[in-house]
Structure formats: structure tokens, C-alpha cells
Design a protein that fits this description.
alpha/beta; D-Maltodextrin-Binding Protein, domain 2; 2 domains; six-stranded mixed β-sheet; five-stranded mixed β-sheet; globular
Amino acid sequence: MRISLTVLLVLLLTVSCTGKHGDTVQLTIAEQYGLAYAPLQIAKEEGYISELLPETTVEWVKLGNTAAIREAILGGKVDMGFMGIPPFLIGWDKGMKWKIFTGLSKAELGLITWRDDILDLKDFGPEDKIALPQPGSIQHILLSMAAGKELGKSDAFDNRLVTMKHPDGMSALLSKRDVTAHFTSPPYVRMEMKEPGMHMILNGEEAMGGDFTFIVGAVTDTLHEKHPEVVEAVKDALAKAMVLIKQNPGKASAILKDEFSLDEKEIYTYLTDGSLRYSEDIEGVPDFLAFMKNSGYLKKTPKNLNEIIIGVDE
């Protein structure tokens, strides 16, 4: 029987731990690439979760996209995952038993190209490929929103997408081979824009038409129902990491520099110039729901947001 590399990786990294009631709690947290996930890195490096859950051993898994996270959760190997709102909604729409339990970050997202003859979406030709984390990612849905507004066809680019994790997408863009553009997030947006000839033709807020949360945390219903104290502790640990970033960005930059292989001064700039904002708030869910349902990316929508968000008031 074949088993995917993703599930095998998570299986090897998963460790069981003992909950306060003596039963076995499997706490494995999956994240992705980029500075939007900085509070997770700080919580991990500073041991904030261990302080709140001293009997719990937490394993961290870094995966290339939300499809891999969904696969691991469906396989029972991951309990929490961090991702954009659209891929969470797609999973819920397909029957996944999970909910959003916290916001994590807002970020400057950008569609960047090296082609000087491409100034907006209508300039892309049928052979031009766009790299992004996966179909159904927040970058894909934002691109679809913009295509609907500018071209009158939200799925105009659906057959021109190339699935790449952010570091690989950047490499493909900078080599000017395989892809014409890359829809990405910090630090890759700034890193790409520093290269000669690169320019941004669309940002996330333009596509959305307003503000939105980039990354949220999702947890399985099983873990939340059996061990709500674990979920609350993770949320509190991330909130503590967000406070550190805001109040002491210098220390936060020192913690993050090895993870992202960036100079501390450069990370400090990202953390303080407004391109990244870390918050537990969750914004944009109704807008994504409405667009994705109307455009056929979702078959259903919840009657109330508390069906998909823990602790939301409606």
C-alpha cells in the first residue's frame, strides 16, 4: 500500500503526550513558510506552550501548503494547522471537522512579475504561468477576486497556476523560467522586489477590496472537544509571542534570524514597518465565504460563523 511522503513525514514526527486527565493527547502543529508565521516560531523557541502545558510534548511540522496540512489532519497525524482562510473553508466544505480558533497575522501579499510588458491582469497571455502555494490557497482566491473585477471571469487563471512553496516560487521567478509571476508573502515579496526588473502588479488588499486576516489557526473538533485547555493554552502562547513582537521587536528579530536566514536588521524592518501585523483578530471570513460560494469554490456556507470559528459572537 502506498503512503504519501507528507503523511509519512508527519507520522514519523508525531509524539504522544499525556493530558491532565491521564488520557493520551496527540498534539502536533503544522505550519508553513514565511514571516507571517513568526509568532509560532517565537512560541516554539521561547517555550511558551511548554510553560502553559508542562506535561505536553509538542511536535512542529513545516509543510509546503495547506493541501499537505489537510491530508495530515485527515490522516489523524496533525491536530492544529496554520493557513489562509480560503483553504480552511475548502476543507470545511468537504466535510473536515475543524474550526478556526485564532487569527495569527495580516501581511502584504503581492503578485510579482519580471515581464515589463505585464502591467495588469489583462496583459497575461494564455501561456503565462503563475506560481502560488496551491489551488484554493488565499493567493489563488485573491487572484480570482481580482480577475472577476478586472476581467469579468473569476476563474480566468485557474488553468495557469503552478503549485510551488514560496521559496521555490521565488527561485522560479528570479530565474525567469517556468513561471511569469509569483503571488507570495513576506519575506519573499520584499526579497523579489529588490531584484532588478521585478515589479508588483497586484496586492492583496486591492484584490480583496479591503483588509483581511492572512493566516489563521485551525484545530480539529476532536482535540477542542476533548481538551479545550490545550487549545486555549496554544492561543495564549501565541498571544504572548505577539506581545513580544510588538513590545520588543529587536529580541523577536534575534529569535527569528536563524529560522529565516535573514539579517536581524532586515527582520526588524519587516516586524515594524506595517507590512506584517500580528493579531488574534479574524477578519474577512464573510467576504471570502460569499465570493467562494458565488464563484463555485464552495458548495455551502455556514448558517452562523460559530459553526466554523470558536468563540465568535453572533
